[in-house]
Structure formats: C-alpha cells, structure tokens
C-alpha cells in the first residue's frame, strides 16, 4: 500500500492520458461503477483503482489514478496498492557440477488481484547425473517366469546404468494386492500359501532399498518367491504411492534422477473403481508413508487405492519418473494411463520379461531428453504458466531439452481477480498466500513465496473516532466522515429521525424540493441516482449533457454539473472539437492548402466551391466534368444579356467576362466551351484559364463574335428534309423488291460490304448411345464486316422424315396441357453459386425469376406456374457468354404456342419480364415437337452456338431426322447464308428388346422365392444380355428378401427368362414392430449388351403380402385398369424435396389429358399404405406439412377428372431435414463414493436426426439450488458413450448436473438434476471397469482440463451372478448394469431390437427365498440347453443357432510352423487400389516371408504375391475392378513350412461412368464395403468350466448371413484353437462353450459368414475365476463360481412369463429356492449382485441384504 512518488508523477499522468485516449471511459467506469463504501473495498476492485483521501475533494473518491488527478485530487492523497518482486536466493548455475540445477532458487512476490509478473528461470541438466533406479514388480503367480529372468539380468542392468551415469543406486519392491475380500482368498490355507511354493499374499513390500552394492541386490533378489491373489487387476497403485512418499525407507537421494520401473502383466485398481466391494467403506488414501520395519505396507485394510490424479501429483512432487514395462495383454490400459504423466515411458514386455533390460535402455534415453516443469502446492488464487523460446513443448506439456547446456524458461505468475465467482480477497488466506514449488522433473526447483495483496488502507487504521469534524456523530476516516447510525450528511450534522426544513432545498421558481430528484436532509439535498444528479438542488442531470452523434460528450469527456468536462486534447460543448489540427493537414503538409483556416478539426475554406474538398483542395477532375455548364449562364448574361440569369440575377455571378477577338487553343487553357444561344440560335465560345475555379477577381475570356447560320437559306431546310425522306423510301423499296438493287447496295461501305450469317455445317449424324445430353450446340458463323449487331431467329422441327407428324400431333387435343421449355438470358453475370441448386443465392434468384415470369405468363389462358427452374452458362455466346441463362418449364395448353411465342419475343425486345431484367437477343421456346429461338451476334463476334433440343423419345424411329432453319434477321443488316442444318439421330440396331411383362408383381409372404419373368422381343436373332439388381423400398434386404444382382443372357431364339429372388420369413419381432404393412422392393434392368435394348417397363415393383391382401389388391388393380379413366394418365416425373424439418415440396408434370385436380397420397416409409394421408391439389405441386423431423416419407400422386381417378405415379421417397433433439432421457447416478459418481443418461426420446455429441455440465449449487461459480463442461463427442465418471467432487455438497444432445441441426434442450452424493447410499452394486468411459476430475486444477483417463476393457467375467461382461460397444452398457433413479432423474423404457433376455440367480446362504425381477423382449421358447458329462456335444436353442461342430478346426500346428496372421486390415487408396495390412503371427522360429493371394469373389484368375521380407506386413494392390468383391488370403512361412491363412473379403465402392462400368469417374469418392463385425460379445459363466457366449448380428452384413465362425483359444497360448460353426441368422446368437479351465484367460473371436465371405472379427478376452477345494461365492462384479457335485445332466427351461424353481446345494448349506421371473417388455436388463443396497428395477423393490461372507 503506497502513494505514488513525485518523481513518477509526470510519467504517471502521461500514461493515464494515453490510456484515457486509447480506452475512453473503460477503467474509469469500472472503478466508478463499483458500489464501494470504504477505501479498502475501492482498491480491491481493480489493480488500476485508487482512492482519494483529500478532505477537500468533492468528486467521487474511488476512481482511476488519472481520473482522480484530473479531478483535482493531490498526489499525496492517493491510496493505491503496489506489487513487489524480490529474488531471495540466486546461486548461479555451475555447469561443471554433474547434478541438476535451477536459478534462481527462491523469490518473494506480492501481486494485486488481476496483476501478472513475468521473470526468467534457468534449468541445467548435466550430460550424466546421479540416478536412483527402483524396480517395482508384480508378484502375482502369473509373473513367475518374469521373476526368474529378472534374477539373471542384474549384471546386464548394471552395465546399462554405467553407460548413463557413474553414480547410481538400484532397489527393488514387490506388490500383489490388498489382503482382503475379494482380492485375496481369505481361507487360512490360502493365506499361508496361495500357490505351491509361494509366499503369503501381501499388498506391497520394499525388498531392497536403493543401494550401490550390486552383489547385495542380486543375492537378496535370488531369495524372492512369487505370491498370488484372485482377481486380474493388481494393487500396484498402493505400491507406487508408498514408493513415492517413503523417501527415507526407499532411499531416494535429493540430487539424483529418480526412476521407477513398474512391471506387470495385469491392469490396475484405482480409487473407488468398484472392483472392491469394500471400497465404499474404506477411507481415502491419506498420501502418507505406512511401512513397518520389514518394509511392508500396513494400511491396506483401512485405506482405498489412490486415484490417477493423486499419483500424477505425488510422483511429480518427489521427482520420480515412471517407466511402465507391461505385457501386450495389459498394454492398452497403460497406453492411456502413461499419457497423464508429463514425463514417462511405456514399453511392451515379452511374456517372460526377457527383454526388460533393452526396454529400460530405450526408456532411459527417451525420458532423459524430456523435462517437465510443474507448479506444485499453488494456492487457488494464483496461476503459473511456463514457456520457452529455446525448447519445443510436447503434447504432454513437457519440454524436449538438450542436456549439458542451461535452458532458459519464461514464467508467468498471475493473481486471479475471482475464483468461481468469489473475489480473491474474500477467500481464505490459504487460497491467497503460499509457497509455490516450481519444480523441474530432475531437480529440487524454485520456491516462490507468493501472495495476493488484500491489505487494509492505512487511513482506515488511523481513523478519528467521534471526531469533532463530524460533529461527534461519526468517525473521520480517509478524508471524509463515516456517520454513526441515525446521522447523515457530509459532517454528520443531520439526524435522519428528525423532520427538516425543505425551504433551503427549494430552487427559485420550483415547488418540489431538490428538483424532485433527491431528498432534503437537514437543509441539504441528497440526490438520487448514485451520481446521476448533481448540484445544490440536484438540478443537473449527468445524462443530459450535449451529445455528438448521439454519444454523451462524444465519449471524450464526462458530464459534470450539466456540462461536458472534456478529456485532454478535446474541447467544445460536446467535446467534439479536437485541439489538434491533424485532420486539417493537406497532402503537401500545409494547413487547408492555404485557402482557409482550421477550426474544431475542420477546414473552413475562404472560398466555397463545388470543386473544393474537406481540406480546401481543388478537385480538377470534377472541374473539367461540369465547368462549362456552371459558367454558361453567367457568361451568357454578362456578354450578351441573354439567358436565364439576365437582369439583376447577373449581379450574383462571382466573376467578370472579357470580350476578346481571338481565343486561345484548347491545349493552352483549362477548358474551351461552346454553347448555342436559345434566343438567336447563334453559337458563342469562351475559355477558362488558371486553376479552373473562378473567384470574385477572376476573368473569363469570351469571343466577341457569335457563329450564326445564314438567315436567307432557312427555306431550304424543309425541302432538304423532304428529299432525304424520299431517298430513304426509294432505297427501302429497292432493298425489299429488287434483288439487283439489293446486291448493289450491299457493296456500299455503309451497308457492310459482304456481311452474311449462316450455319457452319449443313449436316450432323449422331448415335443415340453415344450422346451425353439431349441438346446439340450448333455453331453459326458471321462473315464480312463484323461491326454492328445482328440477331437471327431460328427454329427446329422434329421427325421431318414423317411428313405431317408435327401438325398431326398438334391437332390431336388443342386444350391438352404440355410442357414448354423456356430459356432466357438474364442481365446479370453467372456465379459459381448459381450453378449449385441448393445455395442461398440460387434459391433467391429462382424465386425472383419465377415470380416475375409467372406475372407475365398468367396472360396465357390455363397456364400453370413455372417449375424446374435452373441456371447455366452458354459457351460460345459472344461477349455475353458469362451471363446467366435460366431454363424453366411452363405448363400451358397445346394451342397457346403462338401466343406464348409472341409474348416472349415482345418482352425480350423490351429487355424485361415485369421487374426481371433480361438481355435482348436471346430466347428459346421448346414445344413437344418443335422449338424456336433467337441468338445475337454482338459487335466483333464471329461465331455463336445455337443450342437446339433433340427431342429424344423412347418411341423414336431407329433413324430420325431433325431440321434446323435460320428464319430471318429481325435486327441488323446481315444476309442469311447457309440457312438449313439436317440432324440425323441413329439408334443402335437392337437384336432384341428386353423388358418385364408388367410393372408390378405380387407374391405371397409364404412363398420362399419370388419368380419374376423377363421377356425379349427378337428383332435380329442373336444373343442378348441385360443386368438386373434389386433395390429396397419398404421391404429391406436380408430381412424381407435376399438382395440379388447379376446378368441374364438370352441365347439365340430365347424369348423368356425367369428372375428368382429368395424371400425371408417375417420374424415375430418384425411382426410386432412393423405391423401388417405392405412390403415392396424394386428390380431394375440395366446395361444392355450384344445389341439388346431396354423396353418398357424395365423396372418392376414386387409386393410381398398376405394372400387375402393380395386378392384385394389384385381386384382393385384390375378395376383400376378398366378404361373409365378417360384420357388421364399417370403424372410424370414426380419430384420431392425437403423444405425444412417438417415440410416437403412435392411436384410433378401433368399427364396427358385435362385433369380437374390431383390427389396426393403420402405416408411414413415403413408404415402400411393404408395409413397414408391424402391431400388435394389443383396445381401440379403440393406442400406436405406437419411432418416429423428427419423422417423418410413415401408419396405418389394421381390425376382425377369427371371420369374418375387416373393411375398413380411411381413412388418417390424424401427425408425431412433435421431438427434439434429433445432433452436426453433420465439421468442415472451410480454413486461410487461420496466424491465419485458415475453419471449416465438415455438417448433423447426425439432425436430428430443423428446424435453427434453430448455436453455434460456440472457445478456447485447453494441451498436455493442457485449456481455457485461457473459450471464445468465436458464434451462427449461419441454419441454411443452415454456415461461419465466424475471424481474428486466435494463431499456433502449438492451439485447441479445438466446434459444436452447435439445433432446436425444444433444443440437441444438440457436435462437437469440436482443431487448431493452424501445423501445417497454409500455403495451401490459394484461396477467393473467399463469400456471407454471418460473419467474427469472435478477438483482438477490448471494441469487437468480434459479427461484424465479412459478404462479400456472389462477385466474379468463374473459368473456366479450370471452377470455378463461386455467386450466393447458402450451403447450396450445397459446389458451390464442397472440404472438407479434419484431425485432429478426419471426412468425410461428403452426400445431395443433384440429378441431375448439374460437371466441370472442370486446365491445366498441366509435367504430361503430370493426373487429377482427382470424384463424380457418377446422371448421365445428356448427349449432346452443340455450338457452331458465328459462330452463336448451341446444342443443350442432351435430358434437361434445350431452348433455344427465343437472340435478342433485345425490340428495342432507342427513345431516351428507360424500361426495365422492376425488383424487383416484394408485401406482404400483409390477406386481401383488398396493397401492390405496384417499383424505378424506367433511363431517359434524366424519368419521367412508371407504369401498374399487374391481373386474375384465370383471366381476368375488367382493373383499371387510373394513377400520375402518378414518385416514387411503390408502390400499395395492396384488395378482392381471398382464395385467388385475380392477375397484376400494371407499366410506366413518359416523354415518348417507355411502356416494357416487369414481370409478377408473387401469391395471398393465408387462412381463409374454410365457407359463404362469398369471406369471410375475422375474425382469421385470411394469407400470400402465389407461385412461389419458382429455385435458386442456378452459372456455369462455357467459353471467353473463352461460359459455362454452371445452376440448380435452385424449392423452391415453386406450379404446374406449364413452363420458365424467362433474361435476359442487360450490368451497366452498353450493349446490349439477350437472353432465352432454356428448356423443361422438371428438378431442375437448364442453358444455354450464347455471344457474350459478356471483361472485361465481365453480369447474368443466371432466373425460372420455371409454370401460375400467372412467379415471382420469381434474379439473378447475372458477368465472364469474360482478356487479349488470347496465353495467360494464371489461378490460384487466377480465371478460367483463354485465347485460342487452337479447331476449328470442339467437343463434350464426359460419361456416368456414362466418361472423355474430348482434347489441348489452348496457344501451342505441349503441355499433355498431360486426364483426367476421374466416380464414382457421392450427393455433388456440383466440381474446383478450387490452388497448392502436397496435395488429398484422393473417395478420390484427388493429388501436390503446384509450377509456375513466367511465364518471360521
């Protein structure tokens, strides 16, 4: 706290002025706006705020320093907070010392709220520094071979350390897990020896403290034995924490590099991970050392595992760098974990740890080049950031350094103004002050004594209590009185409880005291408005000062006492006049060009003129443009006494004229002017000299003589005019009627000698099968003189080889509506956006064009509105080829063609259609058999294309003729040269016409095959071929029918073929969900070959329905085919386009005939047509409204008239646009502990599109449920991950949680819940590590702003509870857990397309009856699941799958033969090339290479690639055929021979050229298509040696699923793989696998076999864990497996709404009757075990269960 010194006063004032000029009013408003009552409150508002203690100061005392000084406060009366920075310890770095060093080592800093301090820090890391290496190893039984190898490699490890440093120590520790249930077998014999020749179980033990005696290390290590536990994850986190904090016991040295090697092959437990059912009871880890004298961890029973953030913080605090050496089995867990440590390393151990030394050597080199600098123990109010210009920062936040040289780092220390909405000075002292340890990875670091200045003003400590200056009614403090209660006024002289005289407060002439703007207290006005009103009578309103441009005081001053107090550099009533003349400086550096003076920042010119600018500079270009005209009237009146200013107005002229005999030439003067005098028709001239701006003393020179026409020859003018008109008439007659005269006139220069236009060619021959469009650009040439414009009208006539064809067609029905094509050239340039139909610019222009053209063409009787409007450019159109051409269609009667032509020509000539501007000289009107148009040759243009339509029709002759004719030249002087062009279009001579017999076929749903006939009409006896392909409509491939495509080949003489499509039986689930809807699919004929041609119809619709329904449809179709429709046909070209999320625009072309209206039928795709909506329309378009967002609709339309309805058009599908989703479903809280919760939510009930992300917000709330501080946001960008684990919440504090969803339309509304974890049950059902659940830390500081980690896979298989473990796909998490509803959330019913439910039992030795309620989905009769002792055969449910074989698919491979390559991966490089990759297979010998074979799936040539390099595991294959399926096979070779092959099927889908299906379109997209993997693998343990495996069908089968191939093998090898072939295709398939071994991890792979081949694998690893020697039920998420005598055969019959009762015996204890209930709903749940938990699900409330698990 200090006052500014006088020496700094000038600089401070200048700085304040500069800041005020740059940021007007910003800081002042900020300080003045704060409602403060004291000096201390003022200076805490902002670092720029100051307080004035001057007793005589009258203005507001809290303001910025500059404002207070400008208002008159003395500098010695200012009170401000001043920061300080002091380095307390700074020993320079000595690079000769071989240890890590930092400079400086200590400093003291005090900052004001919001202030920053920058300084530099140097860190030195030597080339070789002391190193402490501690090896922490997993001692579970599975690591026995790893321990043996570690005992043998001590010498090699020492050699590696010697290469890094000359001073090292090495230590060793071991860990297993907590010695408690359920991690450890608590039976006495197992506690003594869990495995043969093993030590008792333990949590962590420090075996060898850090020592440099390598012999001692090796000898102690040789005596170690392995131990064991039960579950797969280990308690390594407990061990890591003890190694970090027990520095004395471990032996860490202060100046050495600390390296921790963590070796394991298992995953890890972490805080409240749910794997330990007692974790909710255990207290949080206290982060203290708890090792006894033998080095054993003692608090494993009372404290929980540490969390990931805790380990990151503690390892950084103690300079410990972790190296994770893990096996491939657990690599995925640690791959994500190690990224949260700023400096760490991760390596893959071999199964026996034989490569650990090589791994450590590589890790040492990596970590030595990285340095992390972290701020530890930082108060909440301070933030630290470290950057470096020398070294690059890595993704983890560490720096990539170079050892041996000091590195310089820039440190920014910032004091926060507020934290979570609370001002920093209102927080506790521990949040404002503290010692921050800025610590590099390898050294002790910098200690910063930092704090935030929140002191009290000194003047408040020196107050005068009950001061005489305050009339003894208040305290005098900081320059003013602070009145006691009941007193007010500046000197506390007014009692607030007494009445006061208002007369002193009345202003003269007013009747209200204080002008009605304040209160009269003790004869003085106390103004309202917190400073708005001022003055002794509150007469001044500080909002009513003069304004400039509507801004108070021009924002360059403040309003005080009704006047603007301007800032320095500004003046004027509204502070709008700058004192600087910078705005008056001209281009030469002078002021106002010497022609005026500068006032208020503006030039005031001595002589105002239209030609002077704002700085009095003459604009000569403007002078020349209008000077003659401006001077004309004054010259005329002064020189001749004529003109509009003659008389007195002439005196107003600012210049004088001078009559001269001769004028100077135009080159010698500024302007030479000539005008005709209206009074005598004589021309007078004058000149302007000088600068062109005549002033009062300027003179204009005028020629004395006027130039007048001779008066005696005026009578000749009428005669000359008459003769000229007569001559023009004669020439016109000669031109019109005399060919000879016309030829002679054409030779004259004025008549454009040799000027002629005509077509370039006279004949074109086209082949229809090679044509790319339905028009032809026919070039027209102009020769001779190219000056001037010529317009040429043309016409084209179709089918001229058939005389009278066009006239006959036009006379058939004059009132019939026909489409007229209309093309116009708009008077605007074409842009790229206009060529894209969905752009905003295109839509706006389309609307403008249609509105104006409709306004013009409504004159045509019975015409309809325009449709199909689009835009293009016309190449070779002369100088206007970049203009926009609009093409549109107008429906009008056939008889209106001439009227339409005349109306179009009229408006084209005028250049506008209503308000639409068009370029004259271009139009095209196309009727059904002819077209007319006009083209324009601009000046200098030689060639123009005439775009003529070709009238391509299916009924055209094999060779048809079209005639193009140039009619005339309505504008211009050119003559017509070549007038006619003949166009011949030849159809390819067809050997046969192939088509369907009819357009619609109906088949019964009970038929197995739909038989569709295809016929050929033979024209030339030869073979013909066409391709066919099915296409989904309401029927879906692989659900209602098997998709088919292929070729039909007609041999010579064949006229009939049958196309067969296999139909599928409708499943029960489909029957319920889809009802009795009509199912349809289409068959298309395409790609005719060998001279074939497609006839009509070449597309057929197949309807699958019930026989009764088909009979009704047949009857109605028969009646519909009768000729009561009159002439009405089906509407043509139906087109639908979404106009929003709830609207579709549907249009079509009218059919032949004269319909009275149209009837539109539309319905949701998939619904039966009987539920369709009907809509009437009088025009050929309709708006479908009130639709569902993002929903597929089908629609069709028919015309109707007096005779009835006509046939319906073809079906059209359209999807509405997306709309924001509704709020997510229920929020479920799985409370893990009082500080950890798992939040999950359901998908929105109305997704209204495809959900792309969720946003979760959470934050503290007060007792009124109002937020305290900002809420934290987490973006879950995977829509399948609808769950989030939140750690480190504050205990006993309520939080508000919100979740909202996003789709393509944006964010939807949020679902909200408020919950206090402390009020919820401490321990719910135990949860496993759930696949890919994001975990966030609620207490994270600046170092943790995103997800801390992801758990990756389920670690084990629960069995006793029948609870499944899911291998992946988190969208199925509902199968693996129950959802609990708490206040603020709601349960919802999930609709899932699965057709079964998993059931389980709860084993309890104390409950005679136990009822668990589950829900099932339309569960069928499962029949029986039988098992015969000592047999591998099994019977599966009949309705799901059939087990073909349960045997070894391949015999045991010979020794040294490589296994099957894994992970066959395809990557598309282009439409005809891809990259094939695979993983190296297991092999006991060295691989010699690979073999890759591939061929078309349909057969053909087999291609073979040899890869002799065994390290090459990928190959690029090119020259593949697009849209063709290939099968690839890869196998490996060793010296012993070839191994089995891995097979995969792939298709590269891309767009191809229509005429060449094997040629991809350049630039088109390409995608890979392959069968997707089956759904997630769900494991359910049945017994200690058997389990049940289930999975869902692939989402994209890419073919008909024939069955599944299931492979089972030990995860670590040892036995050959066993394969199972499961036949059938069901929504979910199941397989029971017997003959397994307990406590052995197994790897299962499932892949679908389709008609296209085998798809990719779905993989899962599972372990059935149990114990020998008796019963041992597991709890929580563990396998409740036991060994007991089971009958030789057992069966389980489960049906819908059926209960099964069967007693179980467990070592003599009667477990009672297990009751299993199934309810019918559309939700699948799985029962789960729990401990001390009230469980509510499916409407059944079960009681709380407390059990004693072990009795000794």
The gist of it:
This protein has 1752 residues and is mostly beta strands.
Would you spell out the secondary-structure blueprint of this structure?
Layout: H1 9-22, H2 26-33, H3 39-43, E1 49-52, E2 62-64, H4 65-70, E3 78-79, E4 84-89, E5 101-103, E6 106-111, E7 116-124, E8 131-138, H5 144-152, H6 154-164, E9 168-175, H7 188-192, E10 204-211, H8 214-222, H9 236-245, H10 247-250, E11 257-264, H11 308-317, E12 320-327, H12 331-337, E13 345-349, H13 356-368, E14 370-371, E15 373-376, E16 382-387, E17 392-393, E18 399-400, E19 407-415, E20 418-419, E21 422-423, E22 433-440, E23 446-452, H14 458-461, E24 474-477, E25 480-483, E26 487-488, E27 494-495, E28 518-521, E29 524-527, E30 533-534, E31 540-541, E32 547-548, E33 551-552, E34 557-560, E35 563-566, E36 570-571, E37 577-578, E38 596-599, E39 602-605, H15 620-639, E40 656-660, E41 671-676, E42 683-688, E43 699-703, H16 716-737, H17 739-746, E44 756-759, E45 763-767, E46 775-783, E47 790-797, H18 805-811, E48 817-829, H19 840-857, E49 867-872, E50 883-893, H20 897-910, E51 912-913, E52 916-926, E53 930-937, E54 943-949, E55 959-971, E56 975-976, E57 980-986, E58 992-996, E59 1000-1004, E60 1009-1018, ...
Parallel strand pairs: 6-23, 8-9, 8-11, 11-12, 12-13, 40-43, 44-56, 45-57, 58-65, 59-66, 79-82, 85-107
Antiparallel strand pairs: 1-2, 1-3, 4-6, 5-7, 7-19, 9-10, 14-18, 15-22, 16-19, 17-18, 20-21, 22-23, 24-25, 26-27, 28-29, 30-31, 32-33, 34-35, 36-37, 38-39, 41-42, 42-43, 44-46, 46-54, 47-53, 47-55, 48-50, 48-52, 49-50, 51-52, 52-53, 55-57, 58-60, 60-63, 61-62, 61-64, 64-66, 67-68, 68-71, 69-70, ...
Helix pairs in contact: 9-11, 16-17
């Amino acid at each position: 706290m200090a006052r500014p010194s006088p020496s700094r006063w000038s600089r401070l004032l200048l700085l304040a002025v500069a800041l005020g000029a740059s940021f007007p009013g910003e800081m002042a408003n900020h300080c003045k706006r704060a409602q403060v009552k004291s000096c201390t409150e003022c200076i805490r508002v902002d670092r720029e705020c100051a307080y004035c203690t001057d007793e005589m100061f009258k203005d507001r005392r809290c303001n910025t320093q500059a404002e207070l000084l400008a208002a008159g406060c003395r500098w010695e009366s200012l009170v401000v907070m001043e920061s300080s920075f002091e380095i307390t310890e700074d020993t320079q770095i000595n690079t000769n010392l071989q240890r890590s060093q930092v400079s400086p080592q200590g400093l003291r800093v005090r900052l004001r709220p919001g202030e920053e301090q920058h300084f530099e820090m140097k860190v030195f890391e030597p080339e070789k520094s002391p190193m402490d290496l501690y090896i922490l190893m997993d001692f579970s039984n599975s690591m026995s071979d790893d321990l043996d190898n570690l005992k043998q490699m001590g010498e090699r490890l020492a050699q590696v350390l010697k290469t890094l440093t000359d001073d090292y120590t090495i230590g060793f520790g071991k860990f297993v897990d907590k010695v408690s249930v359920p991690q450890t077998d608590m039976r006495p014999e197992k506690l003594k020896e869990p495995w043969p020749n093993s030590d008792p179980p333990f949590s962590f033990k420090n075996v060898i403290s850090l020592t440099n005696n390598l012999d001692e290390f090796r000898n102690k290590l040789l005596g170690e034995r392995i131990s064991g536990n039960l579950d797969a994850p280990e308690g390594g986190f407990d061990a890591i924490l003890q190694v970090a904090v027990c520095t004395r016991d471990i032996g860490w040295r202060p100046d050495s590099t600390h390296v921790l090697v963590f070796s394991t092959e298992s995953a890890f437990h972490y805080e409240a991970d749910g794997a330990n059912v007692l974790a909710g009871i255990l207290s949080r880890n206290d982060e203290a050392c708890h090792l006894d004298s033998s080095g054993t961890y003692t608090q494993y029973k009372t404290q929980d595992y540490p969390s990931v953030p805790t380990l990151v913080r503690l390892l950084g605090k103690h300079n410990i760098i972790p190296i994770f050496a893990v096996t491939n089995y657990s690599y995925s867990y640690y791959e994500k974990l190690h990224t949260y440590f700023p400096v760490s390393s991760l390596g893959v151990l071999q199964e026996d740890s034989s490569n650990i030394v090589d791994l450590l050597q590589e890790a040492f080199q990596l970590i030595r080049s990285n340095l992390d600098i972290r701020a530890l123990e930082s108060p909440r109010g301070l933030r630290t950031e470290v950057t470096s210009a020398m070294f690059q920062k890595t993704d983890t936040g560490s720096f990539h350094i170079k050892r041996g040289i000091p590195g310089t780092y820039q440190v920014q220390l910032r004091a926060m103004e507020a934290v979570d909405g609370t001002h920093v000075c209102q927080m506790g002292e521990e949040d404002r002050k503290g010692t921050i340890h800025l610590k590099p990875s390898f050294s002790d670091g910098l200690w910063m004594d930092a704090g935030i200045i929140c002191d009290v003003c000194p003047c408040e400590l020196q107050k005068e209590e009950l001061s005489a200056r305050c009339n003894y009614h208040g305290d005098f403090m900081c320059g003013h009185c602070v009145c006691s209660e009941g007193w007010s006024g500046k000197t506390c002289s007014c009692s607030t409880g007494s009445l006061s005289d208002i007369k002193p407060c009345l202003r003269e002439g007013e009747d209200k005291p204080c002008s009605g703007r304040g209160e009269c207290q003790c004869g003085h006005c106390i103004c309202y408005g917190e400073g708005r009103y001022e003055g002794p009578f509150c007469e001044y309103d500080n909002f009513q000062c003069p304004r400039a441009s509507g801004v108070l005081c021009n924002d360059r001053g403040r309003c005080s006492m009704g006047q603007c107090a301007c800032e320095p550099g500004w003046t004027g009533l509204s502070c709008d006049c700058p004192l600087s003349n910078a705005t008056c400086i001209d281009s030469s550096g002078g002021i106002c060009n010497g022609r005026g003076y500068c006032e208020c920042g503006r030039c005031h010119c001595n002589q105002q003129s239209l030609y002077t600018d704002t700085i009095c500079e003459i604009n000569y270009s403007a002078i020349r443009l209008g000077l003659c005209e401006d001077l004309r009237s004054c010259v005329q009146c002064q020189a001749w006494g004529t003109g509009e200013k003659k008389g007195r107005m002439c005196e107003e002229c600012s210049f004088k004229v001078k009559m001269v005999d001769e004028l100077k030439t135009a080159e010698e003067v500024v302007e030479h002017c000539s005008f005709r005098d209206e009074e005598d028709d004589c021309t007078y001239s004058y000149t302007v000299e000088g600068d062109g701006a005549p002033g009062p003393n300027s003179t204009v020179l005028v020629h004395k003589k006027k130039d007048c026409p001779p008066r005696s020859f005026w009578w000749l003018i009428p005669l000359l005019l008459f003769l000229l008109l007569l001559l023009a008439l004669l020439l016109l007659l000669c031109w019109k009627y005399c060919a000879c005269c016309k030829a002679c006139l054409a030779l004259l220069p004025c008549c454009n000698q040799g000027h002629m236009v005509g077509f370039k060619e006279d004949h074109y021959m086209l082949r229809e099968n090679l044509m790319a469009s339905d028009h032809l650009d026919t070039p027209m040439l102009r020769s001779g003189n190219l000056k001037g414009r010529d317009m040429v009208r043309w016409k084209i006539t179709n089918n001229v080889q058939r005389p009278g064809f066009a006239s006959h067609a036009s006379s058939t029905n004059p009132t019939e509506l026909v489409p007229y094509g209309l093309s116009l050239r708009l008077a605007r340039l074409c842009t790229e956006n206009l060529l894209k139909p969905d752009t905003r610019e295109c839509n706006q222009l389309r609307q403008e064009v249609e509105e104006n053209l409709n306004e013009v063409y409504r004159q045509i009787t019975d015409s309809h509105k325009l449709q199909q409007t689009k835009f293009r450019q016309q190449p070779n159109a002369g100088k206007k080829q970049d203009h926009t051409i609009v093409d549109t269609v107008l429906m009008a009667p056939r008889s209106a063609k001439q009227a339409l032509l005349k109306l179009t020509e009229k408006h084209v000539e005028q250049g506008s259609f209503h308000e639409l501007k068009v370029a004259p000289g271009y139009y095209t009107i196309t009727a059904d058999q002819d077209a007319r148009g006009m083209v324009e040759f601009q000046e200098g243009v030689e060639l123009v294309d005439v775009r003529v339509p070709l009238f391509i029709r299916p009924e055209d002759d094999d060779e048809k003729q079209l005639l193009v004719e140039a009619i005339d030249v309505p504008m211009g002087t050119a003559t017509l040269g070549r007038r006619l062009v003949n166009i011949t279009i030849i159809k390819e001579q067809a050997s046969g016409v192939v088509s369907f017999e009819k357009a619609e076929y109906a088949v019964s749903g009970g038929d197995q095959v739909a038989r569709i006939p295809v016929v050929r009409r033979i024209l030339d006896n030869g073979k013909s071929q066409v391709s066919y392909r099915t296409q989904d409509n309401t029927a879906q491939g692989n659900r209602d029918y098997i998709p088919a495509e292929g070729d039909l080949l007609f041999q010579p003489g064949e006229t009939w073929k049958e196309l067969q499509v296999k139909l599928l039986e409708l499943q029960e689930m489909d029957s319920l969900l889809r009802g009795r809807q009509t199912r349809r699919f289409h068959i298309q004929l395409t790609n005719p070959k060998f001279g074939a041609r497609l006839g009509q119809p070449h597309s057929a619709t197949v309807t699958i329905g019930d026989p009764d329904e088909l009979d009704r449809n047949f009857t109605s179709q028969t009646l519909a085919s009768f000729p009561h429709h009159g002439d009405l046909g089906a509407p043509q070209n139906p087109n639908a386009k979404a106009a929003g999320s709830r609207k579709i625009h549907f249009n079509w072309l009218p059919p032949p005939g004269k319909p009275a209206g149209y009837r539109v039928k539309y319905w949701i795709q998939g619904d039966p047509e009987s539920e369709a909506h009907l809509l009437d329309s009088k025009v050929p378009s309709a708006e479908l409204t009130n639709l569902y967002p993002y929903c597929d609709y089908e629609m069709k339309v028919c015309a109707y008239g007096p005779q009835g309805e006509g046939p319906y058009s073809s079906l059209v599908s359209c999807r509405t646009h997306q709309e924001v989703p509704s709020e997510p479903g229920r929020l479920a809280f799985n409370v893990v502990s009082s500080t950890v919760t798992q939040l999950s939510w359901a998908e929105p009930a109305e997704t209204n599109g495809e959900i792309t992300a969720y946003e979760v917000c959470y934050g503290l709330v007060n007792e009124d449920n109002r937020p305290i501080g900002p809420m934290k946001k987490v973006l879950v960008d995977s829509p399948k991950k609808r769950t989030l684990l939140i750690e480190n919440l504050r205990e006993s504090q309520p939080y508000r949680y919100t979740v909202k969803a996003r789709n393509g339309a944006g964010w939807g509304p949020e679902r909200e819940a408020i919950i206090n974890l402390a009020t919820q049950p401490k321990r719910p059902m135990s949860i496993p590590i759930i696949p890919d659940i994001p975990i966030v830390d609620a207490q994270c500081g600046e170092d943790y702003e995103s997800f801390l980690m992801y758990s990756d896979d389920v670690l084990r298989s629960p069995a006793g509870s029948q609870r499944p473990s899911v291998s992946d796909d988190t969208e199925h998490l509902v199968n693996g857990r129950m959802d609990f509803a708490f206040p603020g959330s709601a349960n919802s019913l999930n609709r899932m397309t699965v057709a079964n439910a998993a059931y389980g039992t709860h084993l309890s030795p104390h409950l005679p009856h136990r009822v668990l309620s589950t829900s099932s989905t339309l569960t069928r009769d499962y029949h029986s699941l039988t098992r015969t002792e000592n047999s591998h055969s099994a019977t599966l449910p009949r309705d799901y799958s059939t087990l073909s074989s349960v045997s070894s698919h391949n015999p045991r491979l010979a020794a040294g033969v490589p296994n099957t390559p894994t992970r066959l991966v395809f990557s598309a490089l282009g439409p005809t090339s891809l990259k094939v990759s695979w993983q190296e297979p297991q092999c006991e010998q060295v691989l010699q290479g690979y073999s890759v074979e591939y061929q078309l799936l349909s057969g053909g040539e087999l291609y073979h690639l040899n890869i002799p390099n065994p390290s090459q595991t990928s190959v690029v294959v090119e020259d593949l055929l697009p849209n063709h399926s290939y099968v690839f096979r890869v196998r490996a070779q060793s010296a012993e021979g070839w191994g089995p092959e891995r097979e995969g099927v792939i298709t590269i889908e891309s767009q191809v050229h229509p005429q060449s299906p094997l040629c991809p379109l350049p630039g088109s997209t390409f995608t890979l298509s392959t069968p997707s993997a089956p759904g997630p693998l769900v494991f359910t343990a049945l017994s200690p040696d058997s389990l049940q495996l289930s999975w869902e069908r692939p989402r994209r089968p890419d073919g008909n699923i024939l069955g599944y191939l299931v492979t089972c093998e030990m995860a670590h090898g040892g036995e050959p793989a066993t394969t199972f072939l499961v036949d059938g295709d069901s929504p979910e398939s199941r397989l029971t696998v017997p003959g397994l071994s307990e406590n052995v991890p197994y790897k299962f792979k499932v892949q679908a076999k389709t008609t296209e081949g085998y798809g990719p694998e779905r993989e899962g690893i599972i372990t059935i864990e149990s114990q020998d020697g008796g019963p041992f039920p597991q709890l929580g998420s563990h396998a409740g497996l036991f060994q007991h005598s089971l009958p030789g055969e057992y069966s389980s019959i489960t049906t819908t709404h059926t209960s099964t009762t069967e007693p179980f015996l467990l070592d003599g204890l009667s477990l009672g009757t297990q009751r299993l209930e199934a309810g019918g709903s559309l939700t699948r749940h799985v029962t789960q075990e729990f401990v001390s938990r009230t469980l509510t699900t499916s409407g059944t409330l079960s009681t709380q269960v407390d059990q004693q698990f072990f009795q000794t």
